[in-house]
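Onboarding guide, step 5: your first structure request.
Type a short instruction followed by the sequence, for example:

Predict the 3D structure of this protein.
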Amino acid sequence: MENFYMREILFLNKVLDNDIIEKTKIWFGTVAIQYIVKFLVAILLFFVGFKIIKFLKVKLNNYMNKSTRLDPTLKSFITSFTNIALEIFLFIIVIKIAGLPTTGFVTMLGAVSFAAGLAFQGSLSNFAGGLLILFLKPIKVGEFIEVLGFSGTVKAINIITTELTTLDNKVIIIPNSKVSNSTITNFSREETRRVDLEFSVSYDSDIDKVKKVILDEINKLENIILEPEPFVAISQYGDSAIIFIARVWTKSETYWNVHFALLENVKKAFDKEKIDIPYNVLDIRFPNDKKLSV
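The system replies with structure tokens like these:
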């Protein structure tokens, strides 16, 4: 009888063990399938979300370009910031759908951010510099400036950098922290600028005639401003020439047109009126006391 009970007990244990193993296999299989499905959905969402973000970037850029209400400086900053924010948002959603714990991920992200903050202090200072430029507005998109020895038109103010386009169409990229902490010369902020030019004439010239010729050429220009009125006077006596200074006001956008036109027109007028522009003469002496002037 005892052997019979022992056999029954062994048989029941074997059945239970097999049942547990089968249930365990089914459970693991179900869980594995769930994780695989979540992983595949997360990958699909990543690619679809990336395409959507790309589409939204294009739409946002088009809207920013057409909008006349927003400051151009604010447009580039908003576009740059929105792009980064959308990508981070997509990444967090993908992590959550994949079944990874977002709380742990956020904690880890905070720790990584702290470490990255220590490692990339320059980038954070550039971001802060971008905010200062955005709110204090020492420069705006489209203005012609000089900073850190570079001159150009402000093309864009991004989160980290400022882009300039030079007169010969080069692109200069400067960190925002450098721009915000440097002396900036803004040539476009004021509506008007003064053109200052110097003209040298020989000591034999009639100074009243020289002044009249320069003033006549100034008054012939189309883009000058008559108030304040143009000014011409002797500025100094050089080693071999009398130096006249001419000052005339114009709009900022026509500064270089007036500058170059006045230089050219005054030279032609001096030639016509027989007013000499002195130049240096080099004397070369030879051992036999002969002299050659160049």
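Each response can be followed by summary notes, for example: The helical segments are 2-66, 72-97, 102-119, 121-136, 176-180, 207-220, 255-272.
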